[in-house]
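User: Structure please.
Assistant: Input sequence and predicted structure:
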Amino acid sequence: MEDIIRFLEQLRRHNNREWFEANKLWYRDVKARFDGLVARLIDAIAAFDPSVAGLAVKDCTYRIYRDTRFSPNKEPYKTHFGAYFCPRGKKSGYAGYYFHVEPQGDGLIGGHLLSAGLYMPEPNVLKSVRDEIFDNGERFAAAVRGASGFSLNAENRLKRAPAGFPSDSPYVEYLKLKDVYLEKFVDDRFMLQADLVESVAREFRATMPFIALLNRAVDYAREEM
């Protein structure tokens, strides 16, 4: 992991095609190391959440090349490696576990991250999640509380209760969410520990009840399509 972090630090400083091409062999080496880590994480997470069993590395990982067509940021490469572990792979729309390696840059930009939940769910899925929260709010709240060390990200939310839901619900702050995920930032010391795979799996295990609730809502949404 140390070499992966070092590569990403250098890529942040030299985010251009000339540097990347000159260091293509280094990239291929660290990408292979990261893929090996992802393969081990699939097995470790599947040990407590069988819904991710059988995933291939390519089902979970992302390209390093950025799509700059509609972005003011024209840097060609991402400065992180990420992997998303969920039923049927990263494009399935299911809630899952996200592992993000990104050295912290100037101005506290970036940072290694463990996350679990749904990011930018489809409208019908979000409606189903809100129904689940409305019907089983205490169970949802307990799942959030039970994910020790994680916090619920509330950056992307409505100002008022969504249409069709009461503003006086004790769970209205949950109902306002547009993204529904837990997050935990970790440091280099965490990433460089010898038993990283086991530590990441242990952290994610605490979020499994939260993931299970969300994926039940996803399944309901799929049944109604």
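The longest helix spans residues 24-46.
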